[in-house]
# Entry
Amino acid sequence: MSIANEHIRVEFSLSLPKPSWKIRTKIRRGRRGNWVDIIKCYVFTPRIGDVIMKNDKFEWMITNEELRDVISALKCLSKEDYDIIKEAVYEVEASDYIDWSRGKIFIKQFGYGITVEASLRPKMRKPEELTPYLFIIFPLDKISEAHYITDKRGMRVLQPCGRRIMAGDKLIWVILDNDWIKDIAVLIAMLSNDHNRRIKREVFDVIERLEPGHTLYAP
# Structure
């Protein structure tokens, strides 16, 4: 993660991905990928040599720790925006929680083809049980002002569709609007009572315990 031109940039390695970074595809790649009926797609961990195909998407299952890093960086840029986000999260009440009995997926559009998706997925250790997660979804086959792919030299890939993932490739997300961060934080707080308590404890309580002038983000 970095800050450039007063915007936070989040980087995702496509050649050295984390387990929570997946590619969504309508077409199964050999035997790779698990079918997720909720989103009607196969999902698999990217690797060097994978071809980016039409309609492929990058799926980021964001954690509280990752959100904390983003919000900590935001506090460096704008204390006012940080306070607005914190207030919005703390205003979420039980009556605001997502009613999962009405559906298993909820989507919010950010523009540029980027969406935020709250959905029920099997628990990691108890796959027979469903639990809510929040995902940020980026088109991989197209680029925009807010997201693009760079190669190992930091050069932008202008036509990613049909390109093989190479060592050093990264997906870059430029957070052009700080309201996107607020929407993500508020949606996490709305997933369930447990998510509501944890985002306050693991994100805002940790940031607030820092000495004045300090941040988790190291530019």
Notes: Residues 149 and 155 are 8 Å apart (CA to CA). The chain has a mean pLDDT of 92. Helices lie at 64-77, 79-90, 178-189, 193-209.
